[in-house]
Design brief:
By secondary structure, this protein is an alpha/beta fold. It contains six helices and eight strands; from the N terminus they run βββαβααβαββαβα. The chain has one domain: Alpha/Beta hydrolase fold, catalytic domain (Rossmann fold), CATH 3.40.50.1820. InterPro entries: AB_hydrolase_fold, CMBL, Dienelactn_hydro.
Length: 244
């Protein structure tokens, strides 16, 4: 029996009225939100296992757009079913085999092309949560077009030297009480990045926080967690502003 990786129940979340709109880009659907002024800076948001239509992720897209970035969350599951709160965790390994967070390169290229050709973006960053955090770690090793990345509680997969040669500045955000990622794994990541990484990176662990903490909408936050959630978001935006 695998422990439920989420200590919040996404089924009991408040609704969210989105500010952006949906677009079709080649074979991908995507949610896009633009700032109120024109800009040549963009951010790709990689959703978690609940998919691109999950209201928490759309809230984050709108939040980043509000800081002056064309922000887009494509459907990295390519129309297949996202994980649902009612699904059983013993089926998760099979689901994950068909939704591999390291197989996102083609989708990333489609979206990068769209941002450059249709939106005039010149600098593009990437932010990802959980499943998306793993995808960001992968993309920052593979795609030099992404000028900065933020990986939020992406499980640290496969220890190999190739996992640490980041191409551009990357920030890793973790919750101290995330029972899917041990502090030992985080210390190992830090150790290896010191050895192999040639670009700026940062790792930060937020006290008392569980998996999924940084994408909660304000009305779903527990007051004790709120300062850490807000700090993580500020830190995420600051990293993007520094490098994108």
């Amino acid at each position: 029996q695998m422990a439920d990786p989420f200590l919040y129940n996404p089924g009991e979340r408040s609704d969210y009225g989105c500010r952006g709109h949906e677009v079709q880009i080649e074979y991908l659907k995507a949610y896009v939100c633009r700032p109120s002024f024109s800009t040549d800076k963009a951010v790709i948001v990689v959703h978690d296992l609940f998919g691109w239509q999950f209201s928490d992720i759309r809230y984050i897209v709108d939040l980043i757009a509000g800081h002056g970035y064309i922000t887009i969350c494509p459907d990295f599951f390519k129309g297949t079913e996202p994980w649902k709160p009612t699904d059983h965790w013993h089926d998760f390994p099979d689901w994950l085999k068909n939704h591999d967070p390291t197989k996102v390169d083609k989708e990333a290229d489609v979206v990068l092309k769209y941002l450059k050709e249709q939106c005039g973006a010149k600098k593009i960053g990437v932010v990802g949560f959980s499943w998306g955090g793993m995808a960001v770690h992968h993309l920052m090793l593979k795609n030099p077009q992404l000028t900065a990345g933020v990986s939020l509680y992406g499980r640290i997969i496969r220890d190999s030297e190739e996992r640490y040669g980041l191409l551009n500045p990357t920030f890793f955000i973790f919750g101290e009480k995330d029972h899917t990622i041990s502090l030992d794994q985080i210390f190992l990541l830090e150790d290896k990045l010191k050895q192999y990484c040639k670009v700026p990176y940062k790792i930060k662990v937020y006290p008392g926080q569980v998996h999924g903490f940084a994408q909660l909408k304000p009305e779903d936050m527990n007051p004790d967690d709120k300062p850490y959630i807000e700090e993580a978001r500020r830190d995420m935006i600051d990293w993007i502003k520094m490098f994108v």
